[in-house]
Amino acid sequence: MQEAKLKELLDSLTWTEKVGQLVQLSGDFFHSAELAVGPKKKLGITQETIDVVGSVLNVTGAETTRNIQEKYLKNSHHKIPLLFMADIIYGYRTIFPIPLGLGATWNPELIEEAYGVIARESRSAGAHVTYAPMVDLVRDARWGRCLESTGEDPQLNADFAKAMVLGLQQEQGEMFEGIASCVKHFAAYGAGEAGREYNTVDMSERRLRQDYLSGYKAAVDAGAKLVMTSFNTYDGMPATGNEFLLKEILRDEWGFDGVIISDYAAVQELIAHGVAKDEREATLLAMKATNDIDMKTGCYANELEPLVKAGAIDPELVDEAVWRVLKLKNDLGLFEDPYRGSTVEQEQRTLLTEENRSLARKVTQESLVLLQNKNDLLPLKPNEDKILLVGPYGDEQDLIGLWAVHGKSSDVVSIRAALEKELSKENVAFEKGCDLLADYQFLGEFGATKEQIHSLGMTAEEKEIALNKALAAGKKADIIIYAMGEHTMQSGEAGSRTDISLPTIQKEFMEQMITLGKKNILISISGRPLTLTKEVEQMDAIIQAWFPGTEGGNALVDILFGKVNPSGRLSMGFPENVGQLPMSYNEFKTGRPLNSSTHRGRFVTKYLDSPNAPLFPFGFGLSYGKVEYSELILSTKQMTDELTVSLRLKNISDYTCLETVQLYIQDVTGSVVRPVKELKKYQKVSLLPNEEKLVEFSLQRSDLYYYMKDMQFGTEAGEFIVFVGKNANDTQQAEFELM
Ligand code: GLC
């Protein structure tokens, strides 16, 4: 629709119709009348509002969305189509690895391709907007939502944020073939104190800008059409009412003119935060901060019009918000086609195709991180050894993680199924051996019934039998593969935990099994870094598999048998123990570093009972091959605008290697304290057996910019160190001077 006509439409709306565009309700308000009574009563909104509401939360499926849209439009005076928004975080029906696994690919180009698949599947299923990517930087593995993040580094998060938005939106000039991306959660949600969900975030503006905003900025610069506010406070004000974040930074500084939507009920939660005494004040705060859509509360529906009538809110503010929503619908072409081509036939043709599966398999292969491989136990040779697969994830199809809301575990290839496809019958056996958890009661909080919970665990007798069967089978095996990990519901939203080791029941089972003296391989399924400190001693090999998605089993078998050489590198370090958290490789320098030249022994920055170093550092991952790095060559020792750092890589193995070469810098002396290392560049280099390649990095002056003492974004002349290597703790270095 021409924007002039769109403006006429806006001007023709009643206040109820305008406010309706700023309200988002869940599907139960549209599926059936009796269901709506409960939520409607709870939210205290009228049917009149429901009839003019602007968008729907988490309803997908071509048939369902078409039915709701048709019914809604038939009843709509101005024929303004509904927006269908959903949580499609790392897959719609073809589920890719969780984003913490996608981050481990260090391959934004591949992930952009994957998000193109997600866009096509989602669009065919009637979704117009996805609440993705989640780009919250995270340095505390206690937080359950590590799962959705690409990790702890500002540069890597920014690169993946851009790739995901471009993949989702598929924009070419005027063409907008994908679905709208709603980047979240703005801002700094991953820095909740003590790693506790929904907790306070309090940090300096410098740290916010230097580290935490990079992902959102990259997403906005890539054209994300929406931004979602976060539950947390920043500097004493919850994000949803925070004018500094939403207006000053997002809209004024970054020029974002898209839609801002609150997180679920976050407008009303301003009351619980204690910055609004009632829904009227909450509405006032959120609207003045230019939050456009109120997700799933009655605040805007009940309070906006009275506030305007009372002169407490400038009607222009409301019109601007409604304009942004109407413009989004127009950009999506909804006025011309409210279904955007979504039909049941189109959906069936698009979902879970063999092509989508094979891309998912490739992405999962690159997401898997080989953490340990004593005596080069891996890769295995098919049918050379008798293999026993044990553990609660061995024959489990629930490998898709908490936010695969629209995926189906029944689509997933389990590890057992993949192994039995790869090996002859006599060379592979499976015994579950133990439950995933000893106690499933916590699932009651997520709606599981008592009967469901009761059916999950084995009885004491069944446990005894399962263990004995596993021990007996283990005696006959040469190699035991342990498929272990945390429960899906132990990570993701509301999944913060203070003990992030493997569940005790699994550790006890492993203690029993390792007495058999066999070769042991651990596959760790988790939505966060786990403290695998004991398992490092017990196991010969360890593969970090995250929640690997629909093709999880196949990709794991590809790695186990060397069909693919593991290339994953951690995008978030694994702690030695939970007491070290929060932690990150790019921590600031201190006055008493471990290697202090002026202080000895006790009086340096360290713990009495733990190393400072992580169990596995940022950027870490092993390969079956071996790649040698030559000395670094700098194009100059006095850098003005540009510096080229080059080196030669030589693959001295018989494997094709995908080697992620990482370049970090240290600004030795700044006008404020600077990190010990900062990732600036990386390249994922493919090397055939015995192949040698020259790798060059071009470092620009602007790559060295940071928020200086006066908060200006720039840099100062002085000494720098450049580090190049395989991970944050395994680098070679060279010095240069910035003139
Ligand atoms: C949730 C999450 C957010 C999600 C939204 C809609 O509480 O915080 O990530 O997109 O609600 O489901």
Describe the structure in your own words.
With 739 residues, this protein is an alpha/beta fold. It folds into 3 domains: 3-347, TIM Barrel (Alpha-Beta Barrel), CATH 3.20.20.300; 361-576, Glycoside hydrolase family 3 C-terminal domain (Rossmann fold, 3-Layer(aba) Sandwich), CATH 3.40.50.1700; 625-738, Immunoglobulins (Immunoglobulin-like, Sandwich). It is 32% helix and 19% strand. It contains 24 helices and 29 strands. Strands 11-8-7-4-3-2-1-12 form an 8-stranded parallel sheet. A 6-stranded mixed sheet has the order 13-18-17-16-14-15, with helices on both faces. A 5-stranded mixed sheet has the order 21-29-28-23-24. Helix 8 packs parallel to helix 9 (154-169), helix 8 packs antiparallel against helix 17 (344-350) and helix 18 packs across helix 24 (552-560). The termini are far apart. The relative contact order is 0.10. The model has no long low-confidence stretch (mean pLDDT 96). The chain binds alpha-D-glucopyranose (GLC).
